[in-house]
Amino acid sequence: MSFLKRMKEKLMGGPSKEEVKESEQQVEEVVETEEPVQAELPAVEEVKEQEVVEETTKPVEEETVETVQEEKREVAIVEEVKDEPEAEKESKGWFRSAFSITEKFKSGLTKTRDSFTSKVNDLVARYRTVDEDFFEELEEVLLQADVGFETVMELTEILRYEVQKKNIKSTDGIQALISEKLVEIYEKAGDDHIELNLQPKGELTVILFVGVNGVGKTTTIGKLAHRLKSEGRSVMLAAGDTFRAGAIDQLQVWGDRVGVEVIKQSEGSDPAAVMYDAVHAAKNRGVDVLICDTAGRLQNKVNLMKELEKVHRVISREVPNAPHEVLLALDATTGQNALIQAQTFKEATNVTGIVLTKLDGTAKGGIVIAIRNKLHIPVKFVGLGEKMDDLQPFDPERYVYGLFADALDEQLKEEE
């Protein structure tokens, strides 16, 4: 079975029962309408109006993220959660079909696909045969997408070998070959432990979040808390970022909206003391998961790293083998700067996974591969939009499909 067909079976499965029911209800409404054409028009206008509203209210992603902008962004998302009907919050997102999750990756990677894939398609159009000039320009396109120098060199070397081995002359279908090899490179970089290291029910799991200010760390903590709670786990938050103005209040807002307790002290308190209180509170209340926020003052690098080491020691002393996860939040829109941040935090603490935020806001989504191949740290979650269910577990095949969706869909039709 070809790579494309295997990928289709995994990623493009049928809709869930809920989605089928929704679709059937929509069909029944149309059938029962006496004038279906006129009846559909208001719905179309409503959709257009909604698209305009979404377009005008979507926050602007900038290369340099200011803390004030991040605070406004977090508040907007929290307000969205507050306004959602409870039934909708519980039903949507986490348990949708494989197809709808794949569509989230496709939608979330639109900016990268529009930039990256259009350039690859232009190459394929200009070079009808695979030669050295084609590979040289392909290398440049990959570098522009922030795939990373070492990864680009490895990928093009593999592609050269495959082209020679299979005696490939035409550039037709080269996107599928690139997709397949990108997945192989990602998976070869290390063992895939994408799932969170959650302890059995009845035992406390401690998740420590690290990352610089402005990367969307507090937002991600809130979304992850909502996700875990939706899966039936009790969650508590620890406000360990005691230095940034407003950080404690922001986490409290998220705790209120998601419906989880937040352990906190006054601004300027010792973060390690907050963690000590939070661990004991979580134990006493029988909480399943404790998610700990931390400071992100990279300008005070030495002090920050010492602080993280102290927090880590306090947690591990109170809970053996904890923290069970150290998740590093990185802003995808910062490109290679995210890779530098990852290297810095990896030196200070045992980072077990990366949460790549704002992947939908960048045209350089190739940074996912660069981080994995350079640091051998798995990307566990990616932020694909503003909604609560847009924080998705990372999947390399869904990722490469998101990069080449249009070309891969076309080639699948030809194969079938």
How would you describe the overall organization of this protein?
This protein has 17 helices and eight strands. The radius of gyration is 23 Å and the shape is elongated. With 416 residues, it is α/β, with parallel strands linked by helices. The protein starts with a helix and ends with a helix. Helix 7 runs antiparallel to helix 8, helix 9 (149-165) crosses helix 10 (174-188) and helix 15 runs parallel beside helix 16 (367-375). Helix 12 (247-258) links the parallel strand 2 and strand 3 (261-263). Strands 3-2-4-1-5-6-7-8 form an eight-stranded mixed β-sheet, sandwiched between helices. The protein has helices spanning 3-11, 17-32, 36-57, 67-83, 86-91, 98-108, 110-126, 132-144, 149-165, 174-188, 217-230, 247-258, 271-285, 301-318, 336-348, 367-375, 396-415; strands spanning 205-210, 235-239, 261-263, 289-293, 325-331, 353-357, 379-383, 391-393.
Our count of helices gives 17
Strand order of the largest sheet: 3-2-4-1-5-6-7-8
Distance between the termini: 12 Å
Could you give the count of β-strands?
8
Instruction: Please compute the radius of gyration using only Cα atoms.
Output: 23 Å
Structural class designation: alpha/beta
Shape, per Cα inertia axes: elongated
Run of helices and strands? HHHHHHHHHHEHEHEHEHEHEHEEH
Measured as a percent range, the helix fraction is: 55-70%
Task: Show unreliable segments.
Answer: 33-68, 77-95
Strand content: 5-15%
Mean pLDDT: 79
Q: Strand count, sense and closure of the main sheet? A: 8 strands, mixed
